[in-house]
Amino acid sequence: MADAISELNSFHLDVLREIGNIGAGNAATALAKLLDKKIDMRVPQIRIMKFSEVSDVLGGAETPVEGILLQIHGDISGSMMFILDYPSSRLLVNILMGKPVESDLDYDELTCSALKEIGNILAGSYLSALSNMTNLKLMPDVPALAIDMAGAILSVPAIEFGKNSDTVLYIENVFTDGRDSVIGDLFLIPDDLSYGKLLEALGVG
């Protein structure tokens, strides 16, 4: 079967960008509530890319990152991955825990739980936007947290979904409180059949 996402035209991408914009707005609102701070966002950058390109976007395969991976079930299946670099993770966790923002992270149970919760909330904001625009039922699994080099973290969904599709929808998010900025990279990886369902539900299939 041809990779459905490779056949997207500019109109399809505009629709996906709109989902990205709404999702980023939802995520900024959720982040503001979580951190009890005013959070603004930049217009997210949205691209379609191959798995082989993803580690370069994250700064190279050996860049240390935190990855939150959620499996998606329901009317479409696949996975969603939210990647934070170390400075962004440190900033978010320390604000959430009321610590000085420059404090080093100790990856204990509390810190890992906080990272999972942050990733779950942000990824859930996008799933909610996608569900509302498509009327598709989308259910995320409990998030899994990985702390490793980008190449190692990316190998998990690449192996699992590479047999169905080698393409991902990439959304770069930048959130700011006016002084500090957080960069979060979101990757939506529906399986090949789900891309067709997604576009049909959006009325652009």
Explain this structure.
Keywords: Chemotaxis, Hydrolase. InterPro entries: CheC (IPR007597), CheC-like_sf (IPR028976), CheZ_family_phosphatases (IPR050992). GO terms for molecular function: hydrolase activity. This is Chemotaxis protein CheC. By secondary structure, the protein is α+β, with helices and mostly antiparallel strands. It has one domain (4-201): 3-Layer(aba) Sandwich (Chemotaxis protein chec). The chain is 45% helix and 27% strand. Strands 1, 2, 3, 4, 5, 6, 7 and 8 form an 8-stranded antiparallel β-sheet that branches. The chain is globular and about 45 Å long. It starts with 9 loop residues before the first helix and ends with a helix. The mean pLDDT is 81.
Distance between the termini: 16 Å
Share of residues in helices:
40-55%
Determine the CATH superfamily: CheC-like
β-strand percent reads 25-35%
Oligomeric state of this protein = single chain
- Helix count? 6
What keyword list fits this structure?
27% strand, 205 residues, globular, single chain
In short:
This is Chemotaxis protein CheC. By secondary structure, this protein is α+β, with helices and mostly antiparallel strands.
How would you summarize the topology of this molecule?
Elements: H1 10-35, E1 40-41, E2 45-50, H2 51-57, E3 64-74, E4 78-85, H3 86-97, H4 109-134, E5 138-140, E6 144-149, H5 150-161, E7 167-176, E8 181-190, H6 192-201
Antiparallel strand pairs: 1-7, 2-7, 3-4, 3-5, 3-6, 4-8, 7-8
Helix pairs in contact: 1-4, 3-4
